[in-house]
Amino acid sequence: MINAEISKNVEKFVVFNEMSQFDMDKMHLISANLHEIIPRLSNDFYLDWQSHAGMYFPELSESMVKHLATAWLRNFFDCPNSAHEKYANTLWALGELQAHDRLAPVVMAAIIPFMQSAIEQFIQAKDHAIAYHVRLELATSLFKTLAMNENILYHCVAY
To answer: In the Cβ-directed half-sphere of 125, how many Cα atoms lie within 13 Å?
Structure first.
């Protein structure tokens, strides 16, 4: 019952402050394992993209969407030593992706809600190998990373 209530209101429990060293430490613990799932996440994202946003951007081929998603996910799961480095790396990656394809921000804007859903599924999973409080801590760090990416994306696109 508590799990269902927390899952239902997960966004209310997430604090979208600046990333802290604690968040970076959590990301270091899971970073290597998460890089292994990037191809599957990219493929799942493309299927989601195809049914939602893909019809509005036919000029973005499957390979381009998957390439942009993979590059964004690599940066998302990358774990430098500090939150400031993470911010700078994310800003740099966004610039490189946008230089590669002018519609890259559209793909990145679509992948953020996709990842929010994936993180919520991670929290709700009935996996007893990872204690629930540990999943919440990891999810909070991932949500903060998403929030940072979203802020950078919208700030850069607006200017």
So the answer is: 17
Separation CA 8–CA 30 (nearest Å):
25
Determine the Cα–Cα distance for residues 7 and 50; give it in Å rounded to an integer. 27
Cα 113 to Cα 94: distance, rounded to the nearest angstrom: 17
- Note whether 139 and 119 are within 8 A (CB): yes
Which DSSP helix (H) or strand (E) runs through 48?
helix 38-51
CA–CA distances in Å: residue 140 to residues 45, 83, 136: 21, 14, 6
Q: How far apart are CA 147 and CA 121, in angstroms?
A: 18
Is the distance from CB of 6 to CB of 13 less than 8 angstroms? yes
pLDDT tens digit at each of 159 positions of the chain: 444 544 554 444 444 346 777 887 877 777 777 788 899 999 999 999 998 887 788 889 999 999 999 999 998 888 787 777 888 888 888 888 888 888 889 999 999 999 999 988 888 877 777 778 788 888 888 888 888 888 888 877 766
